[in-house]
Design brief:
This protein is mainly α and about 325 residues long. It is built from 13 helices and no strands. It has 2 domains: about 110 residues, no CATH class; about 120 residues, Methane Monooxygenase Hydroxylase, Chain G, domain 1 (Up-down Bundle).
Length: about 325
């Protein structure tokens, strides 16, 4: 088993997942699950619950060993293609998690859960009743896989955040020149058709487009949705704090930034959702305020001043 894990994990990770494969996992994961199923078939007929519990412990140890190997493999990856490899590892982790959730509802494992609990209750009768009540409210406590499931889910979360953080970090770097544009000295175009994407924004937008395409290819649908939403939300906050709040805009700069955001940034995500603006709330509202008419701006200022006087709280929104 140990040799199979070592050799297969190192070789299979370089294989691209098939487009028709729902889970897009490492091929060896299927072999590993088959091995666990074979073990279950061999011991589920044993008459003594204690003996079956011993084999269950073996399966849990194998699951944890497999998780550790996946984690080691993910940490060892570097260089070109690392995101695609981490994505496949995340898919594999998610696949194992789904299998364990399904197994936890099977009669065989429900019986083992009952026997295991009976044994543990005998040893812990001095626990406070409130603590027992709290333990029963967790949706996953009715399965023998609760602890290993928690570990797999934590690992999956870390892998997905690694993909998001790496993408956002690269986007921040690519946006340096864009954030330093002279937003307060830009020319106003009379015709909106005359506007084009700010050249300094191209590296960041190109990076985002490439990463989203890559993640869609390698991640399962469910995990891809999680990743692109997190990327969108973090880019939204980043550009709002480091670009909008850090600069002064004239009318030309406000219109240009709105064009960049509405006609170029949001469309990158529009192919994955009908409402990309719902994930860019900060930038969406900033574009509205930056492009508000002078009369509306004065009216808004008067309303804020009146609100400040009525509440006695100083308005610091500028």
């Amino acid at each position: 088993m140990d040799a199979m894990l070592s050799d297969s994990l190192q070789t299979e990770i370089v294989m691209e997942p098939s487009e028709i494969e729902e889970f897009k996992i490492m091929p060896f994961a299927e072999i590993f699950i088959t091995l666990l199923q074979t073990i279950t078939e061999r011991y589920e007929g044993l008459p003594q619950p204690g003996h079956r519990l011993q084999f269950l412990e073996l399966q849990l140890e194998l699951l944890d060993d497999f998780r550790v190997r996946l984690l080691q493999l993910g940490n060892a990856e570097n260089g070109e293609g690392i995101d695609s490899k981490i994505a496949i590892i995340a898919n594999t982790t998610h696949y194992i998690e789904n299998v364990l959730v399904d197994w936890g509802q099977m009669l065989h494992f429900l019986n083992l859960y009952y026997y295991k609990n009976q044994s543990e209750i005998t040893k812990t009768r001095n626990l406070l009743s409130s603590e027992l009540d709290n333990s029963l409210t967790d949706v996953d406590t009715d399965t023998v896989f609760v602890e290993i499931l928690s570990l797999y889910r934590h690992m999956k979360k870390d892998l997905l955040y690694a993909l998001v953080d790496s993408t956002v970090l690269k986007a921040r770097y690519c946006s340096k020149n864009y954030r330093r544009e002279s937003w307060s000295r830009m020319t106003i175009m009379k015709d909106m058709r005359s506007y084009s994407l700010t050249p300094s924004a191209c590296p960041m937008f190109e990076l985002l487009g490439t990463k989203l395409h890559q993640f869609k290819k390698y991640l399962t649908v469910k995990l891809f949705i999680v990743v692109w939403r997190l990327v969108a939300q973090q880019i939204d906050v980043f550009l709002y704090e480091k670009l909008v709040l850090a600069n002064t805009f004239n009318e030309g700069g406000a219109k240009q930034f709105k064009f960049d955001t509405m006609r170029n940034l949001l469309p990158l995500f529009a192919q994955y959702t009908d409402k990309p603006d719902s994930y860019y709330t900060h930038l969406n509202e900033a574009c509205i305020l930056l492009n508000i008419t002078q009369g509306s701006a004065l009216l808004l200022k008067d309303m804020l001043t009146a609100l400040e006087g009525a509440t006695g709280v100083e308005d610091k929104r500028g």
